[in-house]
Specification:
disordered C terminus; 4 strands; two-stranded antiparallel sheet
């Protein structure tokens, strides 16, 4: 008898994942777990992506944040073509060549306030939730709020990123130092870290959006979204504008348990 030929998948440095219910992939296991939890509780793929994206803002602050960007490519089941939501940040009106030249800057710096853009991530996620999601804002933010308030493990790259900016924080940005270098020390890899200020901002957004009520909820603004976010939080105080964008999403149908 001739031996049966065994299928050998092509070599890859990433595992091949297959399933019959759904799949979530991200750069952090907690975000992937949050997205899968949304699917298991009856949310759709867009609800899951939003929940996972907000978790990434918390657990990977060296790569994501409320002040960042998120380009989104999506395709609804049965749709003929994909849709692109441009959640990329735009330059502020005052960031002109003449302004930089007047400051004696020949090249846009890589850190600080000068290279910061108008945040695009939040409006883009809200546009996705409004037009394609099914959950309320409070529900998709619940996972990120949990890790922000109760803690998440510090990755080695988080610690390395904070260490690289430590002296700058201590010397130039004391409020950032108070957050990222508590008691003047860089958080050690593996220790648990919380982000209470981001949590407070998002709780305020939820409260203000829900207080608008279904009748008076405004359509989410797409000022920053033309149709997964950067660095340890360049902007935490934009909750009023965010709340206007979140009003419709907050008053969408309540979380539905899985059948």
């Amino acid at each position: 008898m001739r031996p049966t030929k065994v299928y050998q998948p092509p070599f890859t440095t990433r595992p091949e994942l297959r399933g019959t219910f759904g799949a979530i992939a991200s750069t952090h296991w907690l975000a992937s777990a949050a997205g899968m939890a949304v699917l298991e509780r009856g949310g759709n793929a867009f609800d899951a992506a939003i929940a996972a994206g907000f978790v990434l803002q918390i657990v990977e602050p060296h790569l994501n944040g409320p002040g960042g960007e998120v380009p989104i490519i999506l395709k609804r089941a049965g749709a003929d073509a994909p849709i692109v939501i441009c959640g990329q940040g735009t330059y502020p009106a005052g960031a002109t060549l003449a302004r930089f030249a007047g400051l004696g800057v020949e090249q846009v710096p890589g850190t600080g306030l000068l290279p910061a853009v108008v945040p695009g991530a939040f409006d883009a996620w809200m546009l996705l939730l409004r037009d394609h999601g099914t959950w309320r804002l409070a529900d998709v933010l619940a996972y990120a709020l949990h890790y922000a308030e109760n803690g998440f493990p510090v990755l080695p790259r988080i610690a390395a990123s904070i260490l690289a900016a430590k002296e700058f924080f201590l010397g130039e940005w004391p409020t950032s130092a108070a957050i990222w270098c508590p008691r003047g020390a860089v958080p050690a890899p593996g220790t648990f870290f919380t982000s209470p200020l981001i949590a407070a901002t998002y709780r305020r957004i939820i409260a203000e959006a829900e207080s608008a009520g279904p009748a008076s909820a405004r359509r989410p603004s797409a000022r920053c979204a033309g149709a997964a976010t950067k660095s340890p939080s360049k902007a935490r105080g934009r909750s009023a504008a965010f709340a206007r964008s979140a009003a419709t999403a907050a008053n969408s149908p309540p979380l539905r348990p899985r059948a």
